[in-house]
Every structure is written in C-alpha cells, then in structure tokens.
Amino acid sequence: LDGRVVRLTDDDSDGVAETATIIFEDPGDRMNYAVGMALHEGNIYISDAGRVSFLTDSDSDGVWDNFQPIIEGLPTWQHTFHSNNGIAFGPDGKLYVTIGSTTDHGPLQERFESSVLRMNPDGTGQEIFATGFRNSYDLAFSPDGDLFSADNSPDELDYNLHYLPPEELNHVQQGKNYGFPYVYGIAGSGTEYTAPVTELFTSSATSGLTYYDGDQYPPEYRGVYIAQLGTGAAAPTNLGVSTGRMVVHVSLTPDGEGSFRGTWQPFARFRTDIGIYGPIDVTVGPDGLLYIVEWEIGTIHKILYNPDSAQAAASEVIALSAGEDIYRNGANGAPACITCHLLDTGSAAGVGPSLFGLGEVAASRVAGLTAEEYIRQSILNSNDYVVEGYLAGIMYQGYAGQLQPEQVDALVEYVLSLAAN
After folding, report:
1. Do the beta carbons of residue 117 and residue 139 sit within 8 Å?
2. Long-range pairs for 189-193 at CB < 8 Å and ≥24 separation?
3. How far apart are alpha carbons 179 and 267 in whole angstroms?
4. How many helices and strands in the chain, by DSSP H and E?
5. String of b and e for 224-263 (b: at least 16 CB within 10 Å)?
6. Which residue of 97, 201, 243, 382 has the fewest C-beta atoms within 10 A of its own C-beta?
7. CA angle 196-200-203, nearest 5°?
8. DSSP state of 351
9. Do residues 225 and 247 lie in contact, with contact meaning Cβ atoms separated by under 8 Å?
C-alpha cells in the first residue's frame, strides 16, 4: 500500500536475509494494492489497482527512479479485492495479466473483467487471451510454455447461488472459457466451458502460484505449487469453513487432449509460535528451492528438503475421514454439505436443517426405509424428503451425478456419526 519495492539481501550467506533496501519509493501516485510483479529485460513490472507499469533504473545505481504506466483503466475494486492481479512474461515475450470480476458471482459488466490479457511489453497490442475466471491472483508458465492460473471461488450466497463452489487450478489456453460466472469446477464443463486441471477446496483464498521443475526436491515434487491464504469472507466463515492456510502441490498428468489433469496434496501447513500461518505467495529461487511469503506475520520461508523430516511430518498428518472431508469441502465439483447444513449448533439455522442426531431418528421419517437408506436417498435426491419448515429446490441437486458410490457410502457413514447434542 505504501508504494515501495524492497530488495532483501543475505549479507553473510547464512540463508537468512539481514538487509532490506528500498529500491523504489513512489513519490507521487502511490502504488495502490500492488499484487503482481515481474522482471523483464532489466525492468520491474508492477500490477496495481487498475494499471500495469514498469520501473527502470536510469543511472544503474541500484535504485529504480522511473515509474511508467503502460496500461490504465483496468476494472479494479468494483468488488472487494478484485482487480488486475498477477502478471508474467511468456515464452513469446509478451506480458500476461489476470483481471478479476466486478462482482462476486456475476453478471459480467466490463470488457476485460474475468480474463487473462496478453499485450506487448510496452502495453500495445492488448488482447483477451482467455476468459471465465472469477479472480485469479497469479499465473505462471512451465518450462514447456504451458500457462497455469488458479481461481478463487465465490463467497456470497443468495438466491442465484445456494452453495460454495470449489476453487480451481486451470491450464490456461488461448481462446478458451473457464466457466465464470456460469459453471464452477468440473461440473458443467464440456465443449463450451473448459474443465479445470483439478478442483481445490472452496473458500481457500488461493493466491500465488509457481511451477517447480528443479532438482532440489525429489522428482515427484515437480509441478504446480499454490499458496492459499484462507478465507476471511463472512459467508464461509459463518458456515464454519476453514480451508486454505497452506501451500499445496499439484502433480500433473497429460490428458491426451493437449491439457492436464492433476491431483493435489498439502505441501506446507503449519502454525508459527506467533499466530496462524497464512501463505499468500510462493516462488522458486535461483537456488532451486521454494520460497513462501506469509501474510499474517510478514515473513518469508525457504523450504529445504530433508527425507527424514519429510517422513516424520507425513506421519503426523491427521486426515479427516473421507465422509467428513466431503461434508466440509465437497468433491468432484459438488459443493460442501456444510454450505447448507451447519456443524456449529450455536449458529443460526442454515439453508437446510441440522443433521446432528439424524441417524437416531431417520428410521422413523419414512415408512419402510432404514436410517441409512433415508440418508442416502436424501443425498442423492434432496427434494424427495423435505423437512417441514424448509423449501424444496433450494439445496444442491447434483450429488447423484458427481459423487462416486464409495463417496456416497462415506458421506452416509459420517452423517450417521453426528450424534445429537
């Protein structure tokens, strides 16, 4: 917010930066909510609210003394935290810029919103490269020239959106539409809308990402890394959604059709001795190691690989049950059940009734159905048995088509375990 660019220096080569030097401080139009930065041909490019500019060091004294906007008037802050965000130079030498939407979940209102723009380094030749992104914070190229970007999920529920969709990692290809504001995740993708590489937990506040192809970690650690800050939005917070606050690794597999499919797993998730860890960006250093920028406390972490400590960390991970995972986070494009059925009994009623103690009374709801059968049918066809005081047609209808049989089994088992309080 204060219009500064800072260089950190490790003076004694001990792996810790001791010196912070201000190399640019804007004396006039102070940079406002700068999110993206890229280096190109000796210049520093900055993406801040509504514009992209470059900095130059005219006298080579180590201080960048010229600030030159190359494009202005981009859609910015018409919706909170939505603006032009990450920038990167492609193998074609052109600058790519992500542009967020002007609303939480539509409709579209401006030409450049919800897109990735491509332009020449001087800002000329602007064109929409791809569309259908709600608010992509960052983008990165692989060594082979493939472009990747992650996308945030909506966080406001209303008559037009009854559930919290998943976040996405997308393989961004020219001319394709990735769905926003019409479809989210894998559900609804096809010839018109392009499916993501993988779905990420809803409301994770996916922010920075990078592509790792180095040799400091084992080969299985190559792929995309994504920093997830964790939501602060009211709706998911009130619903008890606590996703994000970690860096995830996505391993990629070619899909045979010119794109990729991927699976993700947590890579760095920890608490400091001061507070909750909130990663906002991740990048690869010249030493081939990953560096993570943390937002809450303002620190930078370097990730070293130690096989022994990696195995110990893996053994300490306590996973959610499969059913609870689906309940809290959704799966295969289907939303988290917690979107409608709250787990915090002290909260106001959700869109759907509380499921605490349902297993104890479900067998008495419909003659001839066991508790397990009643719960299963309510998941697969949510309009079949509408509880008095709640409306039909409000809750999500697509679980039958999106969840695998074993996932439904796990979800039924979890709901049966929710004892009455």
Report:
1. no
2. 193/132
3. 28
4. 7, 21
5. bbbbbbbbebebbeebebebbbbbbbbbbeeeeeebbbbe
6. 382
7. 120
8. S
9. yes
CA distance 419 to 189: 38
Rounded Cα–Cα distance for residues 407 and 124 (Å) = 50
Kindly report the pTM of this predicted structure. 0.82
- Residue from 121, 156, 133, 124 nearest 84 by CA: 133
pLDDT at 386: 85
Q: Prior bond to 353 cis, omega within 30? A: no
How long is the chain?
Answer: 421
352, 375 Cβ separation under 8 angstroms = no
Say if strands 19-25 and 206-212 run parallel, antiparallel, or are unpaired.
Answer: unpaired
The encoded tokens of residue 221 equal: 């650690």
For the sheet with 299-303, list strands across it: 279-284, 290-294, 299-303
* Sign of the C-alpha dihedral computed for residues 378, 379, 383 and 387 taken in this order: positive
User: Band of the pLDDT at 317, cuts 50, 70, 90?
Assistant: very low
Give backbone dihedrals phi and psi of 177, rounded to 5 degrees, phi first: -115, 125
Asked if 309 contacts 316 with a C-beta cutoff of 8 angstroms, the reply is: no
Q: What is the pLDDT of residue 1?
A: 47
CA dihedral 304, 85, 94, 212 (to 10 degrees): 20
Q: Are 282 and 292 in contact (CB under 8 A)?
A: yes
- Joined together, the tokens standing for residue 203 give 């409301």
Spatial separation of the C-alpha atoms in residues 67 and 24, rounded to whole Å: 9
Distance of CA 99 to the CA centre of its chain: 15
Alpha-carbon distance of 191 to 176, in angstroms, equals 10
Q: What residue type is assigned to position 107 of the chain?
A: P
Question: Which pair of tokens denotes residue 281?
Answer: 């960006």
CB 151 within 8 A of CB 180: yes
Beta bridge mates, 251: 263
pLDDT digits (tens, 9 = 90+) for 114-153: 999 999 999 999 999 999 999 999 999 999 999 999 999 9
CB 116 within 8 A of CB 132: no
CA atoms of 412 and 421, how far apart (whole Å): 19
DSSP state for residue 386 in the 8-state scheme: P
Rounded Cα gap, residues 350 and 394, in angstroms: 11
Residue 198, beta-bridge partner list: 169
Separation of alpha carbons 272 and 270, rounded Å? 7
